[in-house]
Design a protein that fits this description.
Layout lengths: L1 H7 L11 H7 L3 E9 L2 E13 L2 E13 L9 E10 L5 E10 L2 E10 L4 E5 L6 E4 L7 H7 L10 E8 L2 E17 L2 E13 L10 E7 L6 E8 L2 E12 L9
Antiparallel strand pairs: 1-2, 1-14, 2-3, 3-4, 4-5, 5-6, 6-7, 7-8, 9-10, 10-11, 11-12, 12-13, 13-14
Length: about 250
């Protein structure tokens, strides 16, 4: 489950500027709910949200919250929360915070980025503070899932960008490999298929691990399915519901 949570957050592309389509989603806010399955067993819920930061229309807040079901928690308990604050203009990350509770293990990690100094400061409980030089724009894993929605996802295209994750800087290439019609709990969608590959190792360093994301083949580019193939099997997030606005960042029980 941990590799899936990391993997599904690590996809994106390098393009600047907000599209009118995504900006029309950001202003009212959007909530996406998913069912999580592992080896064909429904194991939990995932919710992502996007909206403007209150009282600051030049910044966007993104959230990701995953929770294992009560029955699946006996096998593997997951309770993850991630938040990203980005510039509305270019989606460059300003703050990235994650709190992971997985199988009895915990991870708390906060990174803030000083755009003027081009410095990322990483803080973790019980660890020394780290400072890393970064470029601009710089993306975190969560912001890239949404940033990709701004791009031309015509099959055959490849987008390259820089991502900051776990105190390191990576180059990632997202290839648009084809089209497919999918059925999900939220309905039937015509989609484009995106497969991200990390260059030089890193998050996708395992040769037997892979990630695929299906985005709607329209101007909205909604991620309707996210699938990770890892050593322990296949983990999939299938879109269950699309809602305008945000009531809570917590997934439904």
């Amino acid at each position: 489950m941990k590799k899936f949570v990391i993997a599904l957050l690590c996809v994106g592309a390098a393009a600047l500027g907000r599209s009118a389509t995504l900006d029309s989603i950001v202003v009212p806010g959007e909530t996406l709910d998913y069912n999580l399955t592992w080896l064909s067993i429904t194991g939990g819920k995932l919710r992502t949200t996007i909206a403007l930061v209150p009282n600051d229309p030049q910044r966007i807040r993104l959230t990701f919250s995953a929770r294992s079901s009560s029955s699946f928690a006996f096998i593997y308990k997951v309770r993850d929360q991630i938040e990203s604050i980005v510039n509305r203009e270019d989606f460059s990350t300003l703050r990235y915070e994650k709190h992971l509770r997985e199988g009895g293990r915990t991870k708390d990690d906060t990174t803030t980025i000083d755009e003027r100094r081009r410095i990322a400061t990483r803080r973790r409980p019980g660890k020394d503070t780290e400072e890393i030089s970064v470029s601009k724009p710089i993306f975190d894993p969560l912001s890239l899932v949404y940033h990709l929605r701004d791009l031309d996802l015509t099959p055959g295209r490849a987008n390259t960008f820089t991502v900051f994750a776990d105190g390191k800087i990576y180059t990632l290439v997202a290839n648009v490999t084809g089209r497919q019609t999918l059925e999900t709990p939220a309905g039937t969608f015509h989609t484009v298929i995106v497969e991200p590959k990390m260059q030089g190792g890193g998050i996708f360093r395992d040769e037997d691990a892979s990630l695929t994301i299906w985005y709607t083949d329209d101007a909205r580019h909604i991620p309707v399915r996210i699938r990770s193939e890892v050593r322990v099997g296949t983990i999939t997030a299938n879109l269950r519901r699309i809602s305008a606005g945000i009531t809570t960042i917590e997934p439904p029980r």
